[in-house]
Design a protein that fits this description.
globular, 5 helices, single chain, about 80 residues, mainly alpha, 434 Repressor (Amino-terminal Domain)
């Protein structure tokens, strides 16, 4: 079976890329200094899926964003502000 290449940032929807970049910055700046794996565990999200969110590769659901925001101790309005959405 042939693997397909990961999509380049030029082909990803800009909103997903902005959101993912903001999530990465917020995770790293959090007082607990989460690794991606630690954060995903705390948020009860699959680590691989969370990584794809940060890379802007998936269209994340509102329910998952709610879990992420709760773990970051922010609300969605703050998240969207950081992402400049």
């Amino acid at each position: 079976m042939r693997k397909t290449a990961a999509p380049s940032s030029k082909t990803l929807p800009p909103v997903q890329v902005k959101l993912g970049g903001a999530l990465r910055k917020l995770r790293k700046a959090h007082r607990k200094h989460f690794s991606q794996e630690e954060f995903a565990l705390e948020a009860e999200i699959n680590r691989g899926y969370y990584g794809s969110i940060e890379r802007g590769e998936v269209n994340v659901s509102v329910l998952t964003l709610e879990k992420i925001c709760a773990t970051l101790e922010i609300n969605m309005e703050e998240l969207f502000g950081h992402a400049k959405l």
